[in-house]
């Protein structure tokens, strides 16, 4: 099992601000993909759609201002059953976000791609919370020939 | 042992263009850090310096247009002995870059940070080769409270 790990800081924000961006449709459509539907609260399932397919996430944990955990219940075969952890804490004027996409079966080329694409969406999340404007799909940053 | 994995595509370039950006001082100062000295050719050691410290890399493999492998021989304790793989190939108008920073002893918070920071420098490398202008330190993208 191999994991994708990331860390960003969102300046001038609180963990509650980032938590809202992860647990509401207004937040998720502002930084990940404009085509987001469903229920992003605890025990809900959210459908994220992109030009080439998408993912369904079940919200397994949601602790306000602290932590969100998604389990992938639909989408790309390599993602099914993997988990996405969001851990939030305050460090002075920054909200520190520790991100882990856990449970990949092998370090495939698609996993390399997803690691970098997650970084670009984390920068979008940072911009969305800091400045009110992210770069959600379909206007996301193109990192390679795949998307 | 855990690894950092990434994949970027550099549009309108050849693997030789990216190889040059990885194996010359003009290239490395254009996307990673302006304070780069030493010998980035095979068997050479290159010193990369940042506001807070830096890294010395030995070039262990260098196959023109195909592959570069660095071993970290100086710098942060967590980096010493780790290896950084760059694998290049052409896919139509794209050069695909597979990146692996291999051999971390544990998935520390610093490793989370470095994974995301590498993504930001890979975007800088992409811009440098595509458009002639990267964002090397000290004008790099600030990802969090650490740098």
Automatic annotation (TrEMBL), chains A, B:
Q: Could you tell me the superkingdom of the organism this chain comes from?
A: Bacteria
What sequence ranges are listed for the domain Activator of Hsp90 ATPase homologue 1/2-like C-terminal? 14-129
Stretch forming the signal peptide = none
Q: Which residues form a coiled coil?
A: none
**What CDD domains does this protein map onto?**
SRPBCC_CalC_Aha1-like
The record, for InterPro entries, names: ASHA1/2-like_C (IPR013538), START-like_dom_sf (IPR023393)
**Which family does the UniProt entry place this protein in?**
Belongs to the AHA1 family.
Which protein, by its recorded name, is this?
Answer: SRPBCC domain-containing protein
